[in-house]
């Protein structure tokens, strides 16, 4: 379904325009990938115009999202943000002290290099709820995707998780790790408006990207229920971020009843 | 086990020390530092046998194996009513956990990349073994072990970046640690906490056990507070650091396998020291019959837990 080493060009590149390539939308959200949601949230926070584009082709690092900007492909959400900060002279962290920037980075690592795996585990390896998020034209297509998930996506994820280390734990241990990390995020956030204080910073894009995606598109997962029951401040925070930077969230979702891939692709273009 | 002891000792299993450090693993060093901070007695058992999770360290306590340094520490905290984080409030605990994740889920992979992909020869030079063994290890690493680490790095994600990009990521994390530590004695204030076990375990590996690496140069030149910090921790908890390292032998001796392997592998003798020094005296045989210890000293230390 995806081929590496061959990034897709959007075909109608406008000078200066940024195209964000991802796996597209779902019935419940504008992105399927938390890294994509992080990047798009950052773009909205910095008022940098962009165009999302659906793709199944991935460039050299084999990951989503990537951008095309002035004919150049840039991969990895963090490197993309650094690139755009430099190009557009943006810095969402300008108001933070060096120690605060350090703390923000540490939570970014907690989310992207630890919590992410526990959420991916719940999304892909605990049940088939992922199938409810995307449209299929018929039962055969659903079955085909289900086979692809079983034969490729899930084994790949298990292999990556084992390499990373967290995959060596039991399900119970993985869920405990998720609980611990989400508790830490909620405790640090407290009653603040944004993660680092009264002003937004880059780490807000990260937290919203992962916790927001889980809350709004994976609400039946163990972690989503944990957040809903135990961390109302975190629920309020993602709602706040959504209202502030994604007032068009519902409009961007794939409409209910959509069944064809082509229609979905058009929706994402 | 010493006859005088009535309490069962915690047996820590990990690969033999190197010439530069009591262990090449940041996670083993984290656990050993935790034990010294809490005053819990333990014995070291050098082995290439892996835990059920395929990593080091693991412990055997009252006949039960527990793997993963974080799970081991949680277990020991409960069993012995210890908590290095009692003085921290909720926000501080959260911050401490976040930095632990930065160290263990990201920065450590930069070290793995440097040690096993970029500067392997520098690491092999730290092992106490004959020239012939070193040649074998060099071959084994290039044919097999490096591939395993590349797969791990790829699975994590960081392995997909270029060497230069990985270096940039590592330096960013190190700068964050330095900025957060600032001029404090320990990471969370004036007293050591659990985060210090993690950060010392990793920083010490970078500062002393990645000789000639860009990370070593970067830390020593740009982040002197981290160097001073590791020296502070060593002074407080590792006054026997040099004795705990592998000692350079004039002649390498291959020893036969037997049930008494543990005693013959003994590398770390600390005699007549007070406090935690005594606990590390002997690596005596475990009752666990499945433990098989290689005779060759300074064998390849394993991937981190």
Keywords:
heterodimer, A: Glutaredoxin, Glutathione S-transferase Yfyf (Class Pi), Chain A, domain 2, four-stranded mixed beta sheet, 10 helices, disordered N terminus, B: about 300 residues, mainly alpha, 12 helices, 4 strands, disordered C terminus, FAX/IsoI-like (chain A), Metaxin_GST (chain A), Failed axon connections homolog (chain A), Mito_Protein_Transport_Metaxin (chain A)
The CATH topology of the largest domain in chain A is what? Glutathione S-transferase Yfyf (Class Pi), Chain A, domain 2
Which residues of chain B form runs of ≥5 with pLDDT under 50? 1-5, 255-305
Helical content class of chain A:
55-70%
The portion of residues forming beta strands of chain B comes to 5-15%
CA gyration radius of chain A, whole angstroms:
18 Å
Broad structural category of chain A: alpha+beta
Strand content of chain A: 5-15%
Give the low-confidence spans of chain A. 1-7, 9-13
- Total strand segments of chain B: 4
Strand neighbour order, sheet with most strands of chain A = 2-1-3-4
Mean pLDDT across every amino acid position of chain A:
89
In this structure, how is the largest beta sheet of chain B organized? 4 strands, mixed
Element order of chain A: H for helix, E for strand:
EHEEEHHHHHHHHH
Could you report the average pLDDT of chain B, rounded to the nearest whole number?
82
Number of helices of chain B: 12
The CATH architecture assignment of the largest domain in chain A turns out to be Up-down Bundle
Strand adjacency order, main sheet of chain B: 2-1-3-4
């Amino acid at each position: 379904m995806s081929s590496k080493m061959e990034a897709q060009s959007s075909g109608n590149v406008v000078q200066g325009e940024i195209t964000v390539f991802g796996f597209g939308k779902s019935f419940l959200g504008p992105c399927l990938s938390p890294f994509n949601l992080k990047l798009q949230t950052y773009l909205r926070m910095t008022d940098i115009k962009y165009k999302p584009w659906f793709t199944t082709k991935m460039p050299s690092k084999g990951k989503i999202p990537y951008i095309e900007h002035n004919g150049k492909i840039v991969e990895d959400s963090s490197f993309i943000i650094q690139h755009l900060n430099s190009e557009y002279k943006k810095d969402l962290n300008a108001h933070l002290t060096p120690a605060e920037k350090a703390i923000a980075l540490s939570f970014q690592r907690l989310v992207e290099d630890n919590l992410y795996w526990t959420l991916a585990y719940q999304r892909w390896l605990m049940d088939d709820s992922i199938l409810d998020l995307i449209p299929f034209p018929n039962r055969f297509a659903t079955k085909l995707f289900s086979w692809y998930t079983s034969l490729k996506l899930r084994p790949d994820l298990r292999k990556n998780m084992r390499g990373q280390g967290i995959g060596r734990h039991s399900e119970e241990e993985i869920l405990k790790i998720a609980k611990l990390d989400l508790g830490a995020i909620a405790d640090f956030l407290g009653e603040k408006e944004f993660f680092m204080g009264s002003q937004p910073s880059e780490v807000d894009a990260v937290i919203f990207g992962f916790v927001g995606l889980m809350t709004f598109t994976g609400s039946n997962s163990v972690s989503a229920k944990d957040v809903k029951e135990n961390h109302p401040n975190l629920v309020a925070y993602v709602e706040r971020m959504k209202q502030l930077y994604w007032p068009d969230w519902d409009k961007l979702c794939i409409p209910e009843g959509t069944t064809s891939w082509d229609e979905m692709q058009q929706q994402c273009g | 086990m010493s006859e005088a002891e009535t309490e069962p000792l915690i047996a820590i299993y990990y690969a033999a020390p190197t010439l530069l450090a009591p262990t090449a693993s940041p996670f083993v060093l984290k656990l050993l530092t935790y034990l010294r901070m809490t005053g819990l007695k333990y014995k070291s058992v050098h082995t290439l046998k892996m835990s059920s999770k395929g990593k080091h360290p693991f412990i055997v306590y009252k006949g039960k194996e527990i793997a993963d340094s974080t799970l081991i520490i949680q277990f020991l905290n409960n069993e012995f009513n210890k908590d290095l984080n009692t003085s921290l409030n909720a926000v501080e605990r959260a911050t401490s956990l976040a930095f632990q994740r930065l160290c263990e889920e990201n920065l450590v992979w930069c070290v793995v990349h440097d040690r096993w992909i970029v500067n392997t020869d520098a690491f092999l030079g730290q092992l106490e073994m004959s020239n012939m063994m070193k040649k074998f290890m060099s071959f084994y690493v290039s044919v097999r072990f490096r591939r395993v680490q590349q797969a791990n790095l790829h699975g994590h994600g960081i392995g997909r970046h270029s060497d230069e990009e990985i270096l940039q990521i590592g330096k960013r994390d190190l700068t964050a640690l330095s900025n957060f530590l600032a001029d404090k004695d320990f990471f969370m204030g004036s007293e050591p906490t659990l985060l210090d076990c993690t950060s010392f375990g990793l920083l010490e590996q970078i500062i002393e056990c990645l000789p000639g690496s860009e990370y070593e140069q970067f830390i020593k030149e740009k982040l002197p507070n981290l160097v001073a910090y590791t020296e502070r921790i060593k002074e407080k908890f590792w006054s026997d650091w040099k004795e705990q390292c592998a000692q350079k032998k004039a002649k390498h001796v291959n020893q036969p396998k037997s049930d008494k392997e543990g005693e013959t592998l003994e590398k770390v003798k600390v005699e007549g020291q007070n406090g935690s020094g005594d606990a590390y005296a002997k690596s005596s045989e475990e009752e666990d019959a499945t433990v098989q210890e290689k005779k060759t000293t300074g064998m390849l230390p394993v991937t981190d837990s």
